[in-house]
Amino acid sequence: MKENNWYTFLEGSKKLGKSHSYLYKSMKDRPELFKSTMIQKHGRIWLISDEGLNYIKKNTKKEGDRLRTAILKAVYKTNYHFVFTPFNLNIF
Q: In sequence order, what are the beta bridge partners of 42?
């Protein structure tokens, strides 16, 4: 069985090529990515395994990917122009 190497969140973030606080912020924003078998806490230090780093790398959005490309293409192809006006035009 392959032995897992463990890294602090700082080391893991740098290994992923991200900022030093990337894993801390990711864990706060999306805790569902961090399975209990992939992370450990020793005192105030969080550790993450190789398996955890690979899992996070595979399951996070890549830089430059657009979230709503299909929706944006549909909007740009329409011939209708949307104009938003206030409902109540009685100023006085």
A: 45
